[in-house]
């Protein structure tokens, strides 16, 4: 089926997958680009169609992400305790429930506290959960439309999760707002909220919390969040916000501090390497006692709209 992935974006991979050396660099028409800064947020702004960079395909657990601090922001694998990170499986889930990735040209400002969450941004591009039925691949650039958003508080930082759907998905014509998701995909929103609450518990972290009473907000609210984070990214890339360790290198944004001449950029040759051995047991399931964590009553209350 047509998954609406942009054919003009290609990857150049180096290092073995599932190793600390793995990188996936982006090119467009053979020109090196940053998936953070050079891929436009909108594929068609008039129609409300956005671009989404897929980092983690549905049902997988390798924690690939756009690297903030590396030149041209290639996708790399996050690390935990010095080793490539794989998200643990918490029963009854195995892997991510959606194609998970980022909205380019957005940034959650760590120096700005959102008035509805009371906490500052997590210093990353906005996260997106694409709920269509097709399983994507790391590095795909999908055309999606916005349905809603969930306000996660992760490590006391605002970490919005924008719910989107591939515009080519068979259900896309029936999904226009967050209420449509519950109507046509019953249980997915509740599972999403539960997953994000507990997925770090096996690693020794406490359960995550939510802003806005744990309620999903609809498309209009989500678009407001996206606009805020787009404005923040513009300040960042124009050198008007403190960037910290973030690389602003790009090849398309004239007049910005990070603008590079594409002719001066040399990417490593593309390598098709076998994955590195994985020490972690990727088939292990963790059973999270929600009663002991005091979560069951809260989850039920959330789903009944009482919290």
From TrEMBL:
Q: Which GO terms describe its molecular function?
A: inorganic diphosphate phosphatase activity; magnesium ion binding
Q: Which UniProt keywords apply?
A: Cytoplasm, Hydrolase, Magnesium, Metal-binding
Which stretches of sequence are listed as region Disordered?
A: 247-279
Pfam assignment, any one: Pyrophosphatase
- Enzyme Commission number, as recorded: 3.6.1.1
* GO process terms (BP): phosphate-containing compound metabolic process
Q: Which InterPro entries match?
A: Pyrophosphatase (IPR008162), Pyrophosphatase_sf (IPR036649)
Record family assignment: Belongs to the PPase family.
- What's this protein's name? Inorganic pyrophosphatase
Origin organism is Lasiosphaeria ovina
